[in-house]
Amino acid sequence: MKRSERIYHYIQEKSAAYTKEQLKGQVGMDAQEIAGALDILRNNVSKELNELHRQGKIVKFSGRPVRYFDRETLEGLLETDFGTGSCQFQDIEECRKLSGVEEEEINPFEHLIGAERSLKRQVEQAKAAILYPPDGLHTLIVGQTGVGKTLFAHMMFAYGKAMHRFADDAPFVTFNCADYYNNPQLLISHVFGHIKGAFTGADTAKAGLVEEADGGVLFLDEIHRLPPEGQEMIFYFMDTGTFNRLGETTRSRRAKVLIIGATTEDPNSALTRTFVRRIPNIITIRPLAERTLEEKLDILKLLFMDEAQRVKKPVRISVESVKALIGSIGSGNVGQLKSNIKLLCAQAFLNGIDNPNYIEVDFKMLPPNVKDGLLTLSANRQALTELTKYVSEPLVVSPPGGNFQMEGAGGNEGGFNLYQVVEDKVALLKGEGISDELIKQIVATDVNVYVKDLYNKKHSVNMTTRERLLKIVDEALVDFSEQVSLYVQKRMNRSYRDRFLYAFSLHLSAFLKRVKSKESIPYTEIEGAVPQDSQCVQVAGEIGEMIEKHYHLKVPRNEIEYIALLLESSDDDDLDEKVTILVATHGKSTASSMVDVAQKLFSSTDINIIAVDMPLEIKPQEIFDKTAAMLRTMNCAKGVLILADMGSLCNIGSMLSEKLKIPIRTLDMVSTPLILEAMRKVDIAGMDLDSIYESLRNFKGYEAVDSADASQHNENSQEAIVTICSTGQGAALKLKALVEDILRHAGRAVEVIPIGLVHMEERIEEISQAYRIVAAVGMKKPQAKIPFIPLEQLIDGTGEQLLSELVLDRKIDMVPKKRGSMVVQKLCEESLQKFLTYLNPAKVMGGLLEFDRLLEKELGKKLSNPVRIRLLVHCGCALERIVTRSALVYKGDKDEVDTQKLQALKKAARVFDETLKLRFDEDEFYFMANMI
Predict the structure, then answer these.
(1) What pLDDT score does 445 carry?
(2) pTM for the whole thing?
C-alpha cells in the first residue's frame, strides 16, 4: 500500500467512527496525529494531505492545528453534497451553516459529569419529569450539601427549554426557604404574595414567587424549612393550579408552575406525609465520595479549568496533589472541593506571578486536612492503583479552548528512568514525614502502574518492541535483554515477553550509564518494597548474576531491589480475580462464627469471604449501608455470592447490585458445609459466579443421605468414573488425566479408575462394590447398566458436555462454554510441551483457544476436534518460529488455496498481535488453510 493510500485509509477509518452528534468543536485528524499513528515523517504526511485535499478526497478545517476529515463520510453525516472541487472550512460550525444544516437542539445533560454513568438513572428521572404530560411532574431532589442539587435543577429547566416544554423567556425563580425560617407568615407571603393589610407593615399588595414563576419553574431550596401550613398551600397549588395571596379567603388565582424542591434531609421525616405523597418524582443525588474515581477526576479537572479561565493561564497540578485532593473528598462534596481548589489556585497564582506560562499547584502547598487525603487514599490500595492509572504524570489543565492533557505526552521514549521515579517519589514523601512502610507501599504501586503505562503508551501496531527499542538502545543490549526476558518467562511461568523486555532494556541502559559514570544507586529505603521471600526477589538475584557474567561488573544489592520491582510490575497477566462470598445471617455473631469455622477448616486463604451479622434490633437499611461499604473496599469484579438465612437479607442482593454496579447472586440458605462448598468452588480456576450459583442450588451437605438410599452401604456412596483402554496402562492413564481435567473444570471431585479390556466386566463388578460408577469412558461399552461415552465422542467434544452433565446429575448451564475445550486444550498442551523451547504452552494456550473461536466464527462453521488440535499445535509452533526467526516457506501453488479460508485465518490471527505482539509470516497461513 502506497504512503498516500495508508494516510487516506487511516482518515477514512477515524472519520467513520464519528456520529452526527459528535460533529462539534474540533473534529478530524491533524498531521502530527497521523504521523505518530502511521510512523511517517510529519513533513511527508503534510505533503500527502495537501494532495488528497487537492484531489477532493478530504475536507480541510483551517483552524490551529489544521485538521482533515473524509469528505464522503462528512457528506453522509450531514446529508449534504459539497459539490465538485476541494473543500475548506474554518470549522465544523461553518461547514454546517454553509451546507444548510441547522444545529440540533443540545441536550444540557450531555455536559453533566456522570450523566451516562453514576447519574444515568437520575438523568432519566429528570427527563421523564420534564416531558410527562401535560405539564410535567413536580420533583424533589434529595442529597447532601454540595452534591449539586441546584445545578441539577437548572439543567432540568434548560432541558425543558431545549425540548420546548418552556418558552425561551420562561422564568426560573429560586427561593431558599431557610431565609424566613423564623417567620412562617413572612415566608408564606414571600412565596404566594399578600394583599394590602394582610399583616402589620403590609401597606401595599404584592405578588409572590408563584406568580413570578408563572410559565416556568419555582425552585424551593431547603424545602424542609417550609412550615406545615406552607406545605399545605404548596400541595394544594400542585393539585389544582390555584392559590390565594396571604389575606385572601378564596383560591381564585391561577398559575402554571413546575415545582422543584431540594432538601438535605430524609423527606419522610422532614416533610409532612401528605406533602411527600403529592411529589411523585424523588431524585436522590449520590455523594461525591460514592461516585467513581473517573468521575471525581473529571470534576476535579472541570473545577481547575474554571480557575484557569480566571487567571488566564494553564494550571499544572502535581500527581500527589491530585491524589490528595481526591482522597480528601468528604461530606463537603463538590462544594468543599471547589473551595479547596480556589484557595490553592489563589496561592499558586501569587507564587508564580512571574511565570508567564502557567501556575503550579504543588503538594507542599496543600493545607494539612487536604494532605491527609493522600494517606486516606493510600490505605485503599485498590483505589490508589486505579487512580494512578488515570494520573501517572502531572496534570495540566488549560483555560476553555484548550484540552486536558498529561504533561509530556508524546515525549521522547528514552525518558524512562526508574531511578528518577523512585528518587522523586521518596524525596517528596520523606519530606512530608510519611513513614518508611507507607512510602514503600506507595512507591511499589506507582512503579507498577508507571511501567505498565509506559509500555502501553509507547506501543505502536506498526513497530515491534524490538524495533522501538533499537531506536533508543544498542542492538547488543537488546539481544541480552531478550535472553533475560525469555529466561524470566520460563523461570516464573508467567507472560513477561513484551512489557518486561521494554522496561528492563531501558532500565539496564540507565544502570550501565550509572556504573560508567560511577554514580551510586540512591535510597536504600526502597529495600523491602517487594517481600524478600518472594520469587521476584529470587529471580532478580539470578538476573543480577547474568548481568555480572555478561558485562563483567559487580551488581549491588540495591540494584536487585529495582529489578525485583520491575518483575513485580511487568507481569502481562492480571491477578486472578475470584468471586466474593458474603455470609449474612440474623443474630449478633452467627455469620461471623460460621465464617470463622469455615476459614479454619479450609486450607486456602486466597478467598474473599466476609460475614454480616444482623442483630434483631438493627434496621435493614443500616445493614444494607454497612454491607455496601464493606463491598466497596473489596475487588468484586467477578461478582458476589450471598448466602443468607431469611427475610430482608435474602432481598438485598438486587439493591446492592444496582448500587455498586456488580453482579450478585443470592442463595436463601446457609450452613457451614454450604460455606465450605462455596469456598471450594470459588477456589477452582475458571468457575464464574453463575456456575458456582447453579452448582450450589441443590447442595445437600457432605454427609446427607436420603431415606430412599438408606439401604445402600456407606462404602458405595463414593463416586467413580472408569476409563477403558487396551491394557489399562499408557493410553488409559492419559485418558484418566483428560477426564480429571474435565471434572475439575465442572467443579466435582470424582475418583477416576483406569482398567484394561482383559477381564473388563469382572473389574467393573469389583469397582462397583466400593464405588457408585457414574460413567465409563473409553474403547468398549461394558455390559453393566452404566452410562458410556465412547473415546471418539470425548475427542470430538460432545462427550465432554455429556460427562459434565452426568457428574452433576442434571441438566446444567455451567458446562464449558466452548465445545470440547478441555480435551482440545489438554491434548494441545501435551503436544506443545514436546515441541516448544522458548514459549510456555500454558501461557499461549489461552490465545490459541481464542484464535480457534474467532476462526470458527469467521468461517461460519464448527471444526472437528482432530482438525482443531492439528491446527492449534501448528499455530503454537508457528508462534515459536516467529520468536526464533525461522519461518517456513510454502512451496505449493498459492493460487489453489481458498482465499476465503486465508482471510478468515488472517482475521482470527489478529488475536496474537493484540495479546502476544507476534505476527505470522504470510506463508504460515497457506499451511493452515490446507489443514481446514
Answers:
(1) 59
(2) 0.42
